[in-house]
Amino acid sequence: MYSEINNQLMRAATMQNCQPSIIMKCLAGNTLNNKTIMKKLFIFTITGGLLLSGFTACNRDFDTRIDTTVVPDTIAHQASSQNKVLYVVVDGGVGKVVTAQSVRDNVYPNINNLTKTAIFSGASLTDDSNVEATTYADMFTGVRKAKHGVVAASGANKLNQYKPFIDNLSAVNTGFKTSAFVQSDFIFNNLVVNAAVKQLLTSDQAVQSATVDNLSSTSSSVVIAQYTGLKKAGDVGGYGPSSATYLAALQSFDTFLGALLNAIKSRSSIRTENWVIIIASNKGGKYVLGENEDDGSDFSDTERNGFVIISNPNFNLDYFAVPDMREYSVNGTSPEELGPADRQGSLDSASARIYNLGTTGNYTIQFKAYITNRSTSATIPAILSKSSAASGANPTNGWSFLLHAGTNTNWSFRVENNIANTGPSYELGVWNTFTAVIYDSAGKRYTRTYLNGIAGGRTDISNKSLSTNSSLIIGGGPSYGANSFRGRIFDIRIYNTALPENYIVANYCRTFVNTGEPYAGNLIGYWPGVGENSREASEKIFIDYSTSKRDVKFGAAAVWGGLNVSASANICPVYPDVELNKIPFSVDIPRFIYTWMGIFNVQAYQLDGKLITPTYRSTGSAN
Fold first, then answer.
1. For 591, phi and psi rounded to 5 degrees?
2. Staple partner for 409: which of 91, 345, 425, 432, CB 3.0–4.6 Å?
């Protein structure tokens, strides 16, 4: 039964030079490259890298299988009038614990069986406030607190504008009926108000009984149940994997879930119905991570570590592991060697006008560079600039980052007429983050430099113009000894604000700016310059991911090559939006329900939740 999967495991391990004793840990460290195999293998692994063997059980699916061989992976499955939803909200369900325990089919048979054919994530970040009402609102409206306005269990909100999904379902089709059996006053009074059937109950057993009765006797399109046992157990005995109280509650939840699934299987109309089971935690719970578990990222915030299971017998397993940011690296291609004039990137003067920084105003320019050769003796080459012809070692107009001569380890940010702000020393052969902040203060204007968060001097640049008709140039510019340095550059940012020093110190090492981060809205130029953010095709460009959309073009002679930037003293890789957006979050669930129920025109709901699309498996073995 598992021979094919074991063979794939061994092949993948061999390709990655993984030792048999640490196969799963090794492969998990290469999740992006082994995603397909990891999906298939997850149900045979325990987090931490142990391969399970000796499985003999093969649980049956909760529902009859639909033949997907004729129309695989089409909207036909998501537009049937017989589509149904069971949505189970789990309070305090920690993603890392649930995913690790879900492989134990002899202890958690129902969770285990559902995750075999599911979109399954143990890395679903919940709202950073950890306020229960906020997390519930996310799960029912599909928008975040900036829109729905729920920041506490009481007080003003915008739920009349950003309505729960059950309200929108019934508005589209009065035939949609929702039944809800919950224990939260906030959910009952705010998020399921218009359910056809609703009950506010006081225990998981009461919710189970009411839900089973409802599933057995009514034709609701969506049935909602809330389980609170995990939160209660976590509050008393701790939330972590070492808490016997918490694991016992998880086993009780599996029994609770089994009763609901049996009720669905027992329906007289089950043969013509297409049920999707959605199970998601509103948030995780606080506990101390074990040794070497904390990677310092949001994924190690146990209170935000939720889980999502979206299961249907016709789905392939699509598993999203919790990434370890200590092992994550920035991968892709970028120009191999900057410095030579014909390998520079440039933005024409007309497009680059917004980077004329004038005589007043606050700005920050920041980039990461790996310098292999500073320059020849007594030269001061520019490495990033928007400046006019050099006057000795200085730009006549505009601004420029320059490396100092020969063995000198300093650098400077310079503006017109020999005004230089010298930065702290840097090393060759390592990644360094160069920052220049331009700011107004007390009627004057200053610039200050930083190298890897360490501040350099402050220079008065009052009445000096940082504007010029020249182009923006990456990898060079007018200077004394131009084109004599060698190196690589990525993660280039220009902000229309002066970043605070404490922010620079805390964040200089981060490799990406994700949507919603502080000061992301202040970017007027942002060129990540690697991976999906750079492109070598008919045009060699750095894509501008700011709202300015000014891509930088490189010369035809620029050689694109592989770039892998791992965590180091000066680099802390950030999980970029392009990867983060692949992980299903609880805020995505309402949009999935709309689609499953055949509602595709959801623009009016202004959803923050992304579209989750399952992949379908063909009929075959039901195991």
1. -65, -40
2. 425
Which string of DSSP letters, residue by residue, matches 213-240?
HHHHH---SEEEEEE-HHHHHHHHH-SS
Q: Which of 130-144, 154-168, 180-194, 479-493 has the lowest mean pLDDT?
A: 479-493
What pTM value is reported for the model? 0.76
Residue ranges of E strands in 429-505: 431-441, 444-451, 454-460, 472-474, 486-495
Question: What pLDDT, in 10s, does the model give residues 389-432?
Answer: 776 666 778 999 999 876 678 899 998 876 778 899 999 999 99
With 0-12 / 13-18 / 19 or more C-beta atoms within 10 angstroms meaning exposed / middle / buried, residue 199 is middle
Task: State the number of CA atoms in the 13 A half-sphere of 480 facing the CB.
Answer: 16
Q: Burial level of 1, CB count in 10 A (0-12/13-18/19+)?
A: exposed
The answer to whether the CB of 144 falls within 8 A of the CB of 288 is no
Q: Rounded distance, CA 552 to CA 605, Å?
A: 36
User: Over the stretch 135-180, which tens digit does the pLDDT of each residue have?
Assistant: 999 999 999 999 999 999 999 999 999 999 999 999 999 989 999 9
Q: Distance (Å, rounded) from C-alpha 597 to C-alpha 166? A: 11
Most trustworthy range by pLDDT among 7-21, 274-288, 384-398: 274-288
The secondary structure of residue 125, as a DSSP letter, is E
Please give the structure tokens belonging to residue 113: 């069986």
25: amino acid identity, one letter: K
Gap between the Cα atoms of 414 and 398, Å rounded: 8
**How deeply is 515 buried, as exposed, middle or buried, from its count of CB atoms within 10 A (0-12, 13-18, 19+)?**
exposed
Average pLDDT over residues 540-551: 94
Phi and psi at 317, nearest 5°, equal -70, 125
| 8 A C-beta contact, residue 495 and residue 507 | no
- HEC string of 31-49? CCCCHHHHHHHHHHEECCC
